[in-house]
Write a structure and sequence with these properties.
Length: 434
Amino acid sequence: MDWDALLAADRRHVWHPYGPMPGTVDALPVVSAEGVRLRLAGGRELIDGMSSWWCAVHGYRHPAIDAAIRDQLGRMAHVMFGGLTHEGAIVLAQRLVNMTPEGLEHVFFADSGSIAVEVAIKMALQAARADGSTSRTKLLTVRGGYHGDTFGAMAVCDPVGGMHSLFTGILAEHVFAPRPPDGFDAPLNPAWAAAVDDLAAQHAHELAAVIVEPVVQGAGGMRMHSPACVAHLRDVCDRHGLLLVLDEIATGFGRTGALFAAGHAGVTPDILCVGKALTGGALTLAATLCTPEVAARLATPAAGGALMHGPTYMANPLACAAALASTQLLLDGGWRSDVPRIEAGLRAGLAPAADLPNVADVRVLGAVGVVQLDGPVDMARVTAAAVERGVWLRPFRDLVYAMPPYVTGDADLARVCDAIVAAAAAMAEAPAPG
Protein backbone atom coordinates (compact mmCIF):
# COMPACT_ATOMS: atom_id res chain seq x y z
CA MET A 1 0.00 0.00 0.00
CA ASP A 2 1.38 3.41 -1.00
CA TRP A 3 0.99 5.35 2.24
CA ASP A 4 2.84 8.36 0.87
CA ALA A 5 0.16 8.77 -1.78
CA LEU A 6 -2.62 8.09 0.71
CA LEU A 7 -1.31 10.66 3.19
CA ALA A 8 -0.98 13.20 0.39
CA ALA A 9 -4.64 12.55 -0.48
CA ASP A 10 -5.50 12.81 3.22
CA ARG A 11 -3.95 16.29 3.35
CA ARG A 12 -5.82 17.38 0.22
CA HIS A 13 -9.26 15.94 0.88
CA VAL A 14 -9.82 14.75 4.47
CA TRP A 15 -10.78 17.25 7.14
CA HIS A 16 -9.49 16.24 10.57
CA PRO A 17 -10.85 17.55 13.90
CA TYR A 18 -9.99 21.12 14.84
CA GLY A 19 -7.67 21.52 11.87
CA PRO A 20 -7.42 23.57 8.68
CA MET A 21 -8.11 22.40 5.16
CA PRO A 22 -5.88 21.41 3.49
CA GLY A 23 -4.10 19.78 6.40
CA THR A 24 -0.68 20.97 7.44
CA VAL A 25 0.50 17.92 9.45
CA ASP A 26 0.34 14.28 8.46
CA ALA A 27 -1.92 12.15 10.64
CA LEU A 28 -0.40 8.86 11.77
CA PRO A 29 -1.78 5.96 9.67
CA VAL A 30 -3.37 3.26 11.83
CA VAL A 31 -3.92 -0.13 10.17
CA SER A 32 -5.23 -2.11 13.15
CA ALA A 33 -5.72 -1.99 16.91
CA GLU A 34 -5.89 -4.62 19.62
CA GLY A 35 -5.90 -4.43 23.39
CA VAL A 36 -4.41 -1.04 24.24
CA ARG A 37 -2.18 -0.83 21.15
CA LEU A 38 -2.52 0.95 17.84
CA ARG A 39 -0.57 -0.61 14.96
CA LEU A 40 0.73 1.87 12.42
CA ALA A 41 1.57 1.36 8.78
CA GLY A 42 5.07 -0.04 8.78
CA GLY A 43 4.45 -2.15 11.88
CA ARG A 44 5.17 0.27 14.71
CA GLU A 45 2.87 -0.01 17.73
CA LEU A 46 1.76 2.74 20.11
CA ILE A 47 0.09 2.36 23.50
CA ASP A 48 -3.12 4.38 23.35
CA GLY A 49 -3.17 6.74 26.31
CA MET A 50 -6.38 8.40 25.13
CA SER A 51 -8.88 5.51 24.85
CA SER A 52 -9.66 6.98 21.41
CA TRP A 53 -10.96 10.22 22.92
CA TRP A 54 -12.07 8.48 26.12
CA CYS A 55 -14.42 5.86 24.69
CA ALA A 56 -12.39 2.63 24.23
CA VAL A 57 -12.40 1.81 27.95
CA HIS A 58 -12.16 -1.96 27.33
CA GLY A 59 -9.40 -1.59 24.74
CA TYR A 60 -9.71 -2.61 21.10
CA ARG A 61 -11.13 -5.79 19.56
CA HIS A 62 -12.63 -6.95 22.83
CA PRO A 63 -14.00 -10.39 21.97
CA ALA A 64 -17.35 -9.84 23.73
CA ILE A 65 -18.06 -6.59 21.90
CA ASP A 66 -16.88 -7.89 18.53
CA ALA A 67 -18.99 -11.03 18.91
CA ALA A 68 -22.09 -9.01 19.80
CA ILE A 69 -21.69 -6.85 16.69
CA ARG A 70 -21.14 -9.87 14.43
CA ASP A 71 -24.20 -11.60 15.85
CA GLN A 72 -26.36 -8.51 15.35
CA LEU A 73 -25.03 -8.00 11.82
CA GLY A 74 -26.36 -11.44 10.93
CA ARG A 75 -29.88 -10.19 11.71
CA MET A 76 -29.98 -6.50 10.74
CA ALA A 77 -27.54 -3.60 10.69
CA HIS A 78 -30.16 -0.89 11.00
CA VAL A 79 -33.86 -0.19 11.15
CA MET A 80 -35.61 3.15 11.60
CA PHE A 81 -36.82 3.84 15.14
CA GLY A 82 -39.90 5.85 14.19
CA GLY A 83 -42.83 3.50 14.69
CA LEU A 84 -40.54 0.47 15.06
CA THR A 85 -38.47 -0.96 17.88
CA HIS A 86 -36.12 -3.88 18.52
CA GLU A 87 -34.91 -6.03 21.36
CA GLY A 88 -31.47 -4.43 21.70
CA ALA A 89 -32.88 -0.94 22.24
CA ILE A 90 -35.42 -2.15 24.80
CA VAL A 91 -32.94 -4.20 26.81
CA LEU A 92 -30.32 -1.45 26.67
CA ALA A 93 -32.82 1.15 27.88
CA GLN A 94 -33.76 -1.10 30.80
CA ARG A 95 -30.10 -1.59 31.65
CA LEU A 96 -29.31 2.13 31.55
CA VAL A 97 -32.26 2.85 33.84
CA ASN A 98 -30.88 0.27 36.29
CA MET A 99 -27.27 1.51 36.05
CA THR A 100 -27.82 5.26 36.33
CA PRO A 101 -28.87 7.19 39.45
CA GLU A 102 -32.26 6.17 40.79
CA GLY A 103 -35.22 8.06 39.36
CA LEU A 104 -34.12 8.28 35.74
CA GLU A 105 -36.63 6.07 33.95
CA HIS A 106 -36.86 7.23 30.35
CA VAL A 107 -34.17 6.87 27.67
CA PHE A 108 -33.81 8.80 24.42
CA PHE A 109 -31.12 7.32 22.17
CA ALA A 110 -28.92 9.72 20.21
CA ASP A 111 -26.11 9.13 17.74
CA SER A 112 -23.39 11.23 19.42
CA GLY A 113 -22.61 12.98 22.66
CA SER A 114 -23.24 16.42 21.21
CA ILE A 115 -26.70 15.34 20.08
CA ALA A 116 -27.42 13.90 23.52
CA VAL A 117 -26.70 17.37 24.92
CA GLU A 118 -28.88 19.00 22.27
CA VAL A 119 -31.71 16.66 23.27
CA ALA A 120 -31.18 17.48 26.95
CA ILE A 121 -31.34 21.21 26.26
CA LYS A 122 -34.44 20.71 24.15
CA MET A 123 -36.04 18.65 26.92
CA ALA A 124 -35.32 21.39 29.47
CA LEU A 125 -36.62 24.21 27.29
CA GLN A 126 -39.76 22.33 26.25
CA ALA A 127 -40.44 21.32 29.85
CA ALA A 128 -40.23 24.96 30.86
CA ARG A 129 -43.19 25.64 28.55
CA ALA A 130 -45.42 23.21 30.41
CA ASP A 131 -46.78 25.93 32.70
CA GLY A 132 -47.46 28.22 29.77
CA SER A 133 -44.45 30.44 30.48
CA THR A 134 -42.40 31.62 27.52
CA SER A 135 -39.75 33.49 29.53
CA ARG A 136 -37.66 30.52 30.73
CA THR A 137 -35.41 30.21 27.69
CA LYS A 138 -31.93 30.18 29.26
CA LEU A 139 -29.72 27.73 31.12
CA LEU A 140 -27.26 28.39 33.90
CA THR A 141 -23.88 26.75 33.66
CA VAL A 142 -20.32 27.34 34.85
CA ARG A 143 -17.24 28.65 33.13
CA GLY A 144 -14.65 26.13 32.03
CA GLY A 145 -17.22 23.71 30.66
CA TYR A 146 -17.41 21.89 27.34
CA HIS A 147 -20.51 20.10 26.07
CA GLY A 148 -19.97 19.56 22.34
CA ASP A 149 -19.59 21.26 18.99
CA THR A 150 -23.19 21.57 17.78
CA PHE A 151 -24.91 24.92 18.20
CA GLY A 152 -26.98 24.26 21.30
CA ALA A 153 -24.05 22.53 22.97
CA MET A 154 -21.60 25.27 21.95
CA ALA A 155 -23.83 27.86 23.60
CA VAL A 156 -23.31 26.29 27.04
CA CYS A 157 -19.55 25.88 26.59
CA ASP A 158 -17.28 28.52 28.12
CA PRO A 159 -17.87 31.60 25.91
CA VAL A 160 -14.46 33.16 26.64
CA GLY A 161 -11.93 30.44 27.45
CA GLY A 162 -13.54 27.79 25.26
CA MET A 163 -12.95 27.01 21.60
CA HIS A 164 -16.17 28.56 20.30
CA SER A 165 -15.62 32.27 20.95
CA LEU A 166 -15.69 32.83 17.17
CA PHE A 167 -19.45 32.30 17.34
CA THR A 168 -20.11 34.97 19.98
CA GLY A 169 -23.19 36.93 19.01
CA ILE A 170 -24.57 34.02 16.98
CA LEU A 171 -25.09 31.44 19.71
CA ALA A 172 -27.90 31.58 22.24
CA GLU A 173 -26.79 33.51 25.31
CA HIS A 174 -26.98 31.72 28.63
CA VAL A 175 -26.00 32.55 32.22
CA PHE A 176 -22.47 31.65 33.36
CA ALA A 177 -21.41 31.22 36.97
CA PRO A 178 -17.75 31.14 38.03
CA ARG A 179 -15.83 27.92 37.41
CA PRO A 180 -16.04 25.63 40.47
CA PRO A 181 -12.92 25.91 42.63
CA ASP A 182 -10.33 23.21 42.04
CA GLY A 183 -10.01 20.24 44.35
CA PHE A 184 -12.02 17.02 44.42
CA ASP A 185 -11.50 16.70 48.17
CA ALA A 186 -12.21 20.35 48.94
CA PRO A 187 -15.27 21.41 50.97
CA LEU A 188 -17.90 23.61 49.41
CA ASN A 189 -16.41 27.06 48.83
CA PRO A 190 -18.80 29.60 50.42
CA ALA A 191 -17.87 32.42 48.04
CA TRP A 192 -18.50 30.25 44.99
CA ALA A 193 -21.77 28.95 46.41
CA ALA A 194 -22.91 32.51 47.16
CA ALA A 195 -22.06 33.64 43.62
CA VAL A 196 -24.10 30.78 42.16
CA ASP A 197 -26.98 31.52 44.54
CA ASP A 198 -27.00 35.18 43.53
CA LEU A 199 -26.98 34.41 39.80
CA ALA A 200 -29.73 31.82 40.12
CA ALA A 201 -31.91 34.17 42.14
CA GLN A 202 -31.29 37.06 39.76
CA HIS A 203 -32.12 35.03 36.64
CA ALA A 204 -34.60 32.48 38.01
CA HIS A 205 -37.45 34.01 36.00
CA GLU A 206 -35.64 33.25 32.73
CA LEU A 207 -33.90 29.97 33.59
CA ALA A 208 -35.13 26.51 32.63
CA ALA A 209 -32.22 24.41 33.93
CA VAL A 210 -28.66 24.16 35.15
CA ILE A 211 -26.22 22.11 33.05
CA VAL A 212 -22.74 21.03 34.16
CA GLU A 213 -20.14 18.29 33.83
CA PRO A 214 -20.04 16.81 37.33
CA VAL A 215 -16.70 16.59 39.17
CA VAL A 216 -14.47 16.68 36.05
CA GLN A 217 -14.63 19.29 33.32
CA GLY A 218 -13.34 17.64 30.15
CA ALA A 219 -12.25 19.42 26.99
CA GLY A 220 -12.76 22.80 28.62
CA GLY A 221 -9.60 22.32 30.67
CA MET A 222 -9.56 18.96 32.48
CA ARG A 223 -10.31 20.57 35.84
CA MET A 224 -11.57 18.63 38.88
CA HIS A 225 -13.93 20.04 41.49
CA SER A 226 -15.63 18.94 44.67
CA PRO A 227 -18.78 16.81 44.56
CA ALA A 228 -20.10 19.34 47.07
CA CYS A 229 -20.39 21.79 44.16
CA VAL A 230 -22.65 19.35 42.31
CA ALA A 231 -24.77 18.81 45.42
CA HIS A 232 -25.09 22.57 45.81
CA LEU A 233 -26.31 22.93 42.23
CA ARG A 234 -28.95 20.26 42.95
CA ASP A 235 -30.10 22.38 45.90
CA VAL A 236 -30.15 25.55 43.78
CA CYS A 237 -32.34 23.81 41.19
CA ASP A 238 -34.73 22.56 43.86
CA ARG A 239 -35.08 26.02 45.41
CA HIS A 240 -35.83 27.73 42.11
CA GLY A 241 -37.80 25.06 40.30
CA LEU A 242 -35.07 24.38 37.75
CA LEU A 243 -34.03 21.12 36.14
CA LEU A 244 -30.53 19.77 36.79
CA VAL A 245 -28.82 18.42 33.67
CA LEU A 246 -25.62 16.44 34.20
CA ASP A 247 -23.40 15.85 31.19
CA GLU A 248 -21.65 12.55 31.98
CA ILE A 249 -20.55 11.80 28.42
CA ALA A 250 -16.90 11.90 29.51
CA THR A 251 -17.27 11.08 33.22
CA GLY A 252 -19.78 8.25 33.06
CA PHE A 253 -19.16 4.51 33.20
CA GLY A 254 -16.39 4.51 35.80
CA ARG A 255 -13.90 7.09 34.56
CA THR A 256 -13.80 9.08 37.84
CA GLY A 257 -13.84 6.06 40.16
CA ALA A 258 -17.64 5.98 40.54
CA LEU A 259 -19.94 4.40 37.97
CA PHE A 260 -21.30 7.91 37.38
CA ALA A 261 -19.74 11.09 38.75
CA ALA A 262 -23.14 12.06 40.18
CA GLY A 263 -22.60 9.22 42.62
CA HIS A 264 -19.74 11.12 44.28
CA ALA A 265 -22.27 13.84 45.16
CA GLY A 266 -25.14 11.50 45.98
CA VAL A 267 -27.54 13.31 43.65
CA THR A 268 -29.91 12.35 40.87
CA PRO A 269 -30.20 14.82 38.01
CA ASP A 270 -33.47 15.46 36.22
CA ILE A 271 -31.71 14.82 32.91
CA LEU A 272 -28.53 12.83 32.30
CA CYS A 273 -26.37 12.59 29.16
CA VAL A 274 -24.18 9.54 28.52
CA GLY A 275 -22.06 8.44 25.58
CA LYS A 276 -18.41 7.69 24.71
CA ALA A 277 -17.72 4.54 26.79
CA LEU A 278 -21.32 3.39 26.26
CA THR A 279 -20.28 1.15 23.33
CA GLY A 280 -16.66 0.73 24.40
CA GLY A 281 -15.62 2.78 21.40
CA ALA A 282 -16.95 0.29 18.87
CA LEU A 283 -19.72 2.40 17.33
CA THR A 284 -21.22 5.81 17.94
CA LEU A 285 -24.13 5.91 20.38
CA ALA A 286 -25.28 8.19 23.18
CA ALA A 287 -28.37 8.57 25.33
CA THR A 288 -30.28 11.20 27.25
CA LEU A 289 -32.19 9.97 30.28
CA CYS A 290 -34.82 11.84 32.27
CA THR A 291 -37.24 11.45 35.15
CA PRO A 292 -40.94 10.68 34.68
CA GLU A 293 -41.70 14.23 35.85
CA VAL A 294 -39.73 15.73 32.94
CA ALA A 295 -41.36 13.39 30.44
CA ALA A 296 -44.82 14.24 31.78
CA ARG A 297 -44.19 17.95 31.35
CA LEU A 298 -43.15 17.45 27.73
CA ALA A 299 -46.36 15.55 27.08
CA THR A 300 -48.54 18.55 27.90
CA PRO A 301 -50.02 20.60 25.03
CA ALA A 302 -48.24 23.75 26.24
CA ALA A 303 -44.87 21.97 25.90
CA GLY A 304 -45.64 20.65 22.45
CA GLY A 305 -46.97 17.24 23.45
CA ALA A 306 -43.83 15.37 22.34
CA LEU A 307 -40.06 15.66 22.31
CA MET A 308 -39.32 17.14 18.91
CA HIS A 309 -36.24 15.20 17.96
CA GLY A 310 -35.51 12.02 15.99
CA PRO A 311 -32.06 11.11 14.64
CA THR A 312 -31.99 8.88 11.56
CA TYR A 313 -29.67 6.39 13.28
CA MET A 314 -31.46 6.56 16.63
CA ALA A 315 -31.02 3.26 18.53
CA ASN A 316 -29.02 1.71 15.69
CA PRO A 317 -29.14 -2.07 16.33
CA LEU A 318 -25.40 -2.61 15.80
CA ALA A 319 -24.57 0.18 18.24
CA CYS A 320 -27.09 -1.14 20.78
CA ALA A 321 -25.52 -4.59 20.54
CA ALA A 322 -22.07 -3.11 21.19
CA ALA A 323 -23.46 -1.08 24.11
CA LEU A 324 -25.05 -4.14 25.68
CA ALA A 325 -21.71 -5.95 25.53
CA SER A 326 -19.80 -2.93 26.84
CA THR A 327 -22.19 -2.26 29.72
CA GLN A 328 -22.16 -5.97 30.64
CA LEU A 329 -18.39 -5.76 30.98
CA LEU A 330 -18.88 -2.79 33.29
CA LEU A 331 -21.52 -4.63 35.30
CA ASP A 332 -19.08 -7.52 35.67
CA GLY A 333 -17.12 -5.10 37.83
CA GLY A 334 -13.51 -5.31 36.69
CA TRP A 335 -13.33 -1.53 36.39
CA ARG A 336 -13.87 -1.19 40.15
CA SER A 337 -10.36 -2.50 40.77
CA ASP A 338 -8.81 -1.32 37.50
CA VAL A 339 -9.67 2.37 37.87
CA PRO A 340 -8.17 2.72 41.40
CA ARG A 341 -5.11 0.82 40.16
CA ILE A 342 -4.74 3.20 37.24
CA GLU A 343 -5.28 6.19 39.53
CA ALA A 344 -2.44 5.01 41.77
CA GLY A 345 -0.20 4.43 38.75
CA LEU A 346 -0.95 7.87 37.34
CA ARG A 347 -0.24 9.56 40.67
CA ALA A 348 3.11 7.83 41.00
CA GLY A 349 4.09 8.07 37.36
CA LEU A 350 3.20 11.73 36.85
CA ALA A 351 4.67 12.96 40.15
CA PRO A 352 8.10 13.74 38.58
CA ALA A 353 6.44 16.23 36.24
CA ALA A 354 5.77 18.53 39.20
CA ASP A 355 9.52 19.23 39.39
CA LEU A 356 9.72 20.54 35.82
CA PRO A 357 10.07 24.34 35.59
CA ASN A 358 7.28 24.72 33.03
CA VAL A 359 4.65 22.65 34.84
CA ALA A 360 1.89 24.58 36.57
CA ASP A 361 -0.07 21.66 37.99
CA VAL A 362 -0.33 17.87 38.10
CA ARG A 363 -3.73 16.40 38.92
CA VAL A 364 -5.26 12.93 38.92
CA LEU A 365 -8.73 11.54 39.56
CA GLY A 366 -9.74 8.01 38.69
CA ALA A 367 -8.42 7.11 35.26
CA VAL A 368 -7.68 10.75 34.38
CA GLY A 369 -4.13 12.11 34.65
CA VAL A 370 -3.27 15.69 33.72
CA VAL A 371 -0.07 17.72 33.49
CA GLN A 372 -0.81 21.39 32.96
CA LEU A 373 1.98 23.52 31.53
CA ASP A 374 2.57 27.23 32.02
CA GLY A 375 1.89 27.91 28.33
CA PRO A 376 0.41 26.36 25.19
CA VAL A 377 1.74 23.03 24.00
CA ASP A 378 3.55 22.63 20.71
CA MET A 379 1.42 19.83 19.29
CA ALA A 380 4.11 18.49 16.95
CA ARG A 381 6.85 18.54 19.59
CA VAL A 382 4.73 16.94 22.30
CA THR A 383 3.32 14.27 20.00
CA ALA A 384 6.79 13.40 18.70
CA ALA A 385 8.17 13.05 22.23
CA ALA A 386 5.35 10.66 23.16
CA VAL A 387 5.52 8.64 19.94
CA GLU A 388 9.27 8.26 20.39
CA ARG A 389 8.43 6.43 23.63
CA GLY A 390 5.78 4.27 21.98
CA VAL A 391 2.73 6.14 23.27
CA TRP A 392 -0.13 7.96 21.59
CA LEU A 393 -1.26 11.18 23.30
CA ARG A 394 -3.39 14.06 22.02
CA PRO A 395 -2.50 17.21 23.98
CA PHE A 396 -4.46 20.43 23.70
CA ARG A 397 -4.20 24.01 24.94
CA ASP A 398 -1.70 23.87 27.84
CA LEU A 399 -2.43 20.26 28.77
CA VAL A 400 -0.64 16.94 28.31
CA TYR A 401 -2.92 14.27 29.72
CA ALA A 402 -4.04 10.66 29.57
CA MET A 403 -7.37 8.89 29.92
CA PRO A 404 -6.20 5.32 29.27
CA PRO A 405 -8.34 2.22 28.76
CA TYR A 406 -9.23 0.54 32.04
CA VAL A 407 -7.49 -2.64 30.86
CA THR A 408 -4.11 -0.89 30.57
CA GLY A 409 -1.51 -2.98 32.42
CA ASP A 410 0.90 -1.52 34.95
CA ALA A 411 3.93 -1.65 32.66
CA ASP A 412 2.06 0.04 29.82
CA LEU A 413 0.66 2.64 32.22
CA ALA A 414 4.19 3.41 33.40
CA ARG A 415 5.18 4.00 29.76
CA VAL A 416 2.22 6.35 29.29
CA CYS A 417 3.30 8.35 32.35
CA ASP A 418 6.91 8.41 31.16
CA ALA A 419 5.74 9.74 27.79
CA ILE A 420 3.70 12.51 29.43
CA VAL A 421 6.62 13.59 31.61
CA ALA A 422 8.97 13.43 28.60
CA ALA A 423 6.55 15.49 26.52
CA ALA A 424 6.33 18.12 29.24
CA ALA A 425 10.12 18.15 29.50
CA ALA A 426 10.39 18.58 25.73
CA MET A 427 8.32 21.72 26.03
CA ALA A 428 10.59 22.98 28.81
CA GLU A 429 13.55 22.55 26.47
CA ALA A 430 11.81 24.28 23.55
CA PRO A 431 13.33 27.59 22.47
CA ALA A 432 11.32 30.67 23.38
CA PRO A 433 9.17 32.09 20.54
CA GLY A 434 10.85 34.73 18.41
